Amino acid sequence: MHKDYFSHNKWLALFFFAFVSLNFWWIGCGQKGPPRPPHRPLPPTVKDLSYVVDNQIVELSWKVPGADDRSASPPAGYKVFRSKLSAEESNCEKCPMHFNEVGDIPIPVKRSDESKPEKLSFTEGLEPGYRYIYKVVVYDEDGISSKDSNTVKFDH
After folding, report:
1. Domain range list for the chain
2. For the stretch 71-95, what's the b/e string if a residue is b when 16 or more beta carbons lie within 10 angstroms of its beta carbon?
3. Burial class for 139, CB neighbours closer than 10 Å (0-12, 13-18, 19+)
4. Do 151 and 49 touch, CB atoms closer than 8 A?
5. What is the spatial distance between Cα 136 and Cα 151, in angstroms, rounded to a whole number?
6. CB 122: neighbour CB atoms within 10 A?
7. Which ranges of the chain have pLDDT less than 50?
8. H/E element holding 7?
9. Which has the closest alpha carbon to 153: 95, 105, 83, 101?
10. What is the rounded CA–CA span in Å between residue 133 and residue 153?
């Protein structure tokens, strides 16, 4: 009876060890992916992009966003993107739009609140016969970008 007692405990210990091992394997086996940075608020988004065309020049303007959102990352600059489509390309509704960066407006780091501009603008020369589409993206000091602004479209 003494021998059966140890044999029974050996099987019970083996079963317990296997059960615990399988549970650790099952719990620890998740879908692995690339590491993600800690959540951080995006810079504020430009929402009021507008334009004025004067002769062969377009002037884009927008209000500096973020004065009312203290949780967002402060802007370090603005990137202006343009899509320039020929007449044939502008008639294609399902064709993808390709934007190219045409301007980068950095904000100096050491500025007092009184000297910060309320509105910014960007000017660029135009060529006739194209459809122009512009958008602005805000970026912070780490290079993290906001969502795209509203777009402005016009034929010239």
Report:
1. 50-155
2. ebbebbbbbbbbbbbeeeebeeeee
3. buried
4. yes
5. 8
6. 20
7. 1
8. helix 2-28
9. 83
10. 4
Question: Closest Cα to residue 45, out of 141, 152, 135?
Answer: 135
Neighbours of 154 (CB within 10 A): 13
Find the helix or strand (DSSP H, E) in which 102 lies: strand 100-106
- Give CA–CA dist 149/133, Å, rounded: 12
Return the CATH fold of 50-155. Answer: Immunoglobulin-like (2.60.40)
- The three-class DSSP label of residue 136 is strand
Distance CA 117, CA 75 (A): 12
Instruction: Take residue 48 and report the two structure tokens written for it.
Output: 């009021």
